[in-house]
Amino acid sequence: MSDTALPQTGPRRRAGLRLFGLPFPLAWALAFALGLAPLVRWIVLVATNDLGANPVEFLTRSSGTWALIVLLVALAVTPLARLTRQAGIVRLRRMAGLFAFFYVCLHLMTYVWWDQWFDPASIAADIWRRPFIAVGFAAFVLLIPLAVTSTKAWVRRLGGTNWQRLHRLVYVIAPLGLLHLWWIKAGKNDFLDASIFLSGLVVLLGYRILVRLRPR
Amino acid sequence: MSAFSGKDIPPSEITPETLYFDRRRFLLGAGAAIAAATAAPAQDAAGAPLPARRNGAFSTDEKPTPFQDVTGYNNFYEFGLGKEDPSIHAGDMKTRPWTVSVEGEVARPGTYDIETLLKLASMEERIYRLRCVEAWSMVIPWIGYPFSELMRKVEPTASARFVEFETVMDQTSMPGLRRTVIDWPYREGLRIDEAAHPLTLLTFGLYGKVLPNQNGAPLRVIVPWKYGFKSAKSLVRIRFTAEQPVSAWMKAAPNEYGFYANVNPDVPHPRWSQASERRIGEDGFFSPKRATLPFNGYGDQVAGLYSGMDLAKFY
Questions:
Q1: How close, in Å, is residue B284 to chain A by CA atoms?
Q2: Residue B221 backbone dihedrals phi, psi, to 5 degrees
Q3: Where would I find the H helices in chain B?
């Protein structure tokens, strides 16, 4: 990630910046709508009473799945910008990261509310006793500083280099999130979904290693 | 999911259930195929009325879980890992002709036809709680007769100490068999005194009808004080043994599933607590999970089977 643009600290929009031929504000709005799509789907399913026999389980699993998907999308922004030669995509990276945090928060909420019924002692015991809960919770905690420091003001305050170091935490967070899913699926030897996420993560992290190793 | 979750409209109102379950064959379109499909209901009896006398003494007065949920939210991994997969795929399973092989330590081993088994004893309706190991529960009006009636018929020998149940492996209708979640066929087991307990029900129907395929047609066992996976479905083999059988789940994940698998709020699953459960169709967004009872609330009847045993060790 070190060789890519930092979030723009200058004027918010350069006039005429285009993404895949679209004016940047339109591309931004489309990306934002896409980011909200899972939430909109859940709201529609709740409204139409279409969540199935165990709505709580459905929302817990679906929010977890989308948290991981969006996290991988955030990690895909930089490689995508280089491969498509559309440097402007990088300006959507913060949105992707914040959407990932948003869906992680919703996923955590399903657990705190519907599984644990807001019982702090029970939650603490669960984190202590169950490794898959612990790694999922760790991923959430590590995401907090990234979400907090996602603003331009924080980039300035930390300085670009420190900000970037901090945000490399995502290379720890994403594997923790995947491990969380992997351990859930281990009980039934059902690694199909988890393997797809693993492939995605290997490609996205492998890309960065290759970029690092390549002589310039 | 959406096509299978119309809460207010039972599928039977939309398409005749028997035709629905036979839709693939129906859609072949050839005249002979249509004749076969329309003749099928008489053979594959799923959904046909199954008269039974309510056994109030063995029934809970809790509210039964809606038929839609009982038949649409199932774990039957031979048909797929998703909860909706069984209701989608199980219709392709043929339940006629069907025989059950009774083997092992019995005086009268043999192959018993489903029609014979249906007439072996008088049918009772019993409303039981079902507690899944995944911390959800239902209340289901089953129809069947005590498994002990079959034991009387086949006469286990003095050395029969356990019973092993084996589920059908039907490659044509069971896409889940291609996944190696467990070492197929599905096997479960009970101690002989558990099998002989009056609560243990050889089950042929639910909600007044012949069992839908996804619920284990044409016959299954129901052991209401144990986690649901102990109640093997679509039985083709019942083996009486001297040695404790190794169940499919013990083999797949010995640290997670033991032989006894009695419902026990004090022994957590390695990945979640068993102290509470969510009642399907009742406990939703605005009600906490309800407390799980030892032996699923059947302690008065069955706790004596385990006196002196450390149930944390024999989980």
A1: 7
A2: -110, 150
A3: 11-14, 17-21, 23-27, 31-43, 67-72, 85-89, 114-118, 147-154, 192-195, 248-252, 299-302
Total beta-carbon pairs less than 8 A apart between chain A and chain B: 63
What CATH fold (topology level) applies to the domain A21-213? Four Helix Bundle (Hemerythrin (Met), subunit A) (1.20.120)
Q: Which residues, 6+ apart, have CB-to-CB distance to B207 below 8 Å? A: B64, B67, B70, B140, B141
Mutation pick from A50, A132, A180 vs chain B, by most beta carbons of B within 10 Å, is A50
Q: Considering chain B, tell me which residue range(s) the CATH 3.90.420.10 domain(s) occupy.
A: 55-305
Are A53 and B253 inside 8 Å of each other by CB? no
Q: How far is CA A98 from CA B29, B39, B139, in A?
A: 53, 59, 43
Using an 8 Å CB-CB cutoff, list chain A residues near B272.
130
Model pLDDT for residues B127-177, shown as the tens digit of each residue: 999 999 999 999 999 999 999 999 999 999 999 999 999 999 999 999 999
Exposure of B43 by Cβ count < 10 A (0-12 exposed, 13-18 middle, 19+ buried)? exposed
Nearest Cβ partner for A53 among B181, B272, B281 = B281
Domain ranges of chain A: 21-213
The reply to whether residue B5 touches residue A184, judged by beta carbons under 8 angstroms, is no
216 residues of chain A, pLDDT tens digit each? 444 445 554 445 555 788 888 999 999 999 999 999 999 999 999 999 999 999 999 999 999 999 999 999 999 999 999 999 988 899 999 999 999 999 999 999 999 999 999 999 999 999 999 999 999 999 999 999 999 999 999 999 999 999 999 999 999 999 999 999 999 998 778 899 999 999 999 999 999 999 999 876
Q: Which member of B84, B271, B273 has the closest CB to residue A187?
A: B271
Decide if A117 and B289 are in contact by the 8 Å CB cutoff: yes
pTM, to two decimals: 0.85
The one-letter code for the residue type at B296 is N
Return the CATH class of domain B55-305: alpha beta
Q: Which residues contact B244 (CB under 8 A, 6 or more apart)?
A: B161, B162, B189, B191, B259
